[in-house]
Amino acid sequence: MRLRLKAGEGGGLTLAFVGPLVVYVIAFLVLPTLMLLAEAFSGKHGLTLKYVAALGQGQTVIAFRNSLVLSALAALVGVTAGGIAAYLVLRPGVPRGVRSLVTSFSAVAANFAGVPLAFAFIATLGSLGIITVWLKSAGVDLYGMGFSLYSLPGLVLVYAYFQIPLMIIVFTPALEALRLEWREAAENLGASAFDYWRHVGLPILLPSLLSAFILLFGNAFSAYATPYALTSGIVALVPVEISNVLSGNVMISQQTGAALALGMIVVMVGVMGVYALAARRIGRWGRR
Q1: What is the pTM of this model?
Q2: What is the pLDDT of residues 214-245, one digit of tens each?
Q3: Would you say 210 and 273 are in contact if contact means Cβ atoms under 8 Å apart?
Q4: Contacts of 133 (CB under 8 A, 6+ apart)
């Protein structure tokens, strides 16, 4: 009787905490997705593929291509630079104050985005920014050399400001999980530092690296305020195109906006599927 009572109490406690989360997910994730799906395939005369088919035309293709390229490059820069920074901070001999400083800065910078970040970069590296003017007076004309903050490379640079700190935050626990005994064992067997990272360290960290890449990709793929404030729509991106629908652009139907949002969901589901397959293969390789 006591065991049954405790089990029942545990089930009720779990339901009390998990139930609101399930309701929240259904209300703000499942139902909106179903509504987008229904709206993307609905027209004046019922079911239609007109708006979904429009995703393969003109400006929409350019927007998806730009978003994919921008997100992939921003995620790659974040994973590479952030991973190296996290490793350097965690190396033996580094003062604890440095780690605390980097962690604190990363926690702030990872959430510093949107219009304030765009304004900060315009004031710094814009055509009349402080650094741009200073370099020009020193004989280095960034914009004369082809650089532009209001382009895809410029957006990658801006995104790196919050992507790299986010990578440091999410990747630090994975680096801390590497045991010192593994490296000592490899060195005792004659392995160099390169051999250790190639055969031990990186294979262990690879799932974490893939997870971090997916997180950074999704973070960049869904960003809206920063690119819109920085480029004013000059660079076609999917979130900006959806904004054009929501802002009342009479040239674009509401169903087109739903189709664009559905396309973003499909892209993220596809990326997650690739990650799942890669993680499964890595797991099989790691068990050999």
Answers
A1: 0.85
A2: 999 999 999 999 999 998 878 899 998 888 87
A3: no
A4: none
